Amino acid sequence: MISKLNNAHSLLVSVARLGLGLTVTEYCRENPPRPEMPLELYQYEGCPFCRKVREAMSRLDLAYISRSSAKGAGANRYFVSARAGKTQFPFLVDPNTGAELYESEAIIDYLAETYGGGRSALAKAVAPLSTLNSALAGGLRPRGLSSRLKKPRDAQPEQLLELYNFEASPFCRKVREVLDELELDALIQNVAKGSKRRPELVKRGGQMMVPFLVDPNTGRQLYESDDIVAYLRATYKGG
Ligand SMILES: N[C@@H](CCC(=O)N[C@@H](CS)C(=O)NCC(=O)O)C(=O)O
After folding, report:
1. Minimal CB count within 10 Å: which of 10, 30, 56, 229?
2. pTM (two decimals)
3. In its keyword annotation, does this UniProt entry include Phosphoprotein (predicted)?
């Protein structure tokens, strides 16, 4: 019962965002971008500006490393402030081009220009409305805002966790929130509708269903958001 309520609550955010991040753009269905090295996004789930960038990643069928940076988190926040001069999120690092950017709109423009065949004038025109809507949607479910660890995580697990995901999934949101509350980085393998990465997920896990977590540190592979959340909390709550 509690789980169903939690799912419905998480779904509210997807509905408020009109399902953005559910499907891959026409351009990226035809031309799936596969940068040699994964992009790195310093971000956290509860940040409305970060949400817009994550939606763009999903729509453009880009995988990225989420560098978990919720309030109270340690190393990733220090990195951004030392590297670029202010503690502001989202912050994108693209090792393929050397680009390093703050500002959600600048990041979305960059991603669309570099990997998505450009951004429409309409999308640019409605950007301020989208930002306002993202803040309101976040207000419906203020989670993934702060670390829940007693002290900042001093080291990430030896190998990067992998999460098959798409931004608009209410079930994936539950997992992303907990990743940020535990300050865990993860390779986010986006598999929105139309993604050419979907067969890879079926090959690895056996089903086309998200979320799907792969933890190379323990060899565990899990479907089911509640099971993944319980696994992450049990395995990594100690920081
Ligand atoms: N105009 C910026 C605003 C970014 C912003 O204000 N981000 C907030 C988080 S939602 C932030 O970095 N706050 C400082 C913090 O989290 O410590 C953008 O669009 O990226």
Report:
1. 30
2. 0.95
3. no
Confidence of residue 239 (pLDDT cuts 50, 70, 90): low
Whose CA is closest to atom 1 on ligand 1?
A: 103
Per-residue pLDDT, 164: 98
For ligand 1, atom 7, name the residue with the nearest CA: 89
Count of domains for the chain: 1
195-211 pLDDT per residue, tens: 999 999 999 999 999 99
Q: What is the pLDDT of residues 89-134, one digit of tens each?
A: 999 999 999 999 999 999 999 999 999 999 999 999 999 999 999 9
Give the domain range for residue 150: 2-236
Q: How far is the CA of 49 from the centre of ligand 1 (A)?
A: 7
Which CATH number is 200's domain given? 3.40.30.10
CA distance readout (Å), 155 to 17, 32, 75, 119, 170: 34, 33, 8, 38, 29
Probe target for ligand 1 pocket from 49, 52, 180, with the most ligand atoms within 8 Å of CB: 49
SS3 for 102? strand
Q: How many Å lie between the centroid of ligand 1 and the Cα of residue 216?
A: 32
| DSSP letter assigned to residue 32 | -
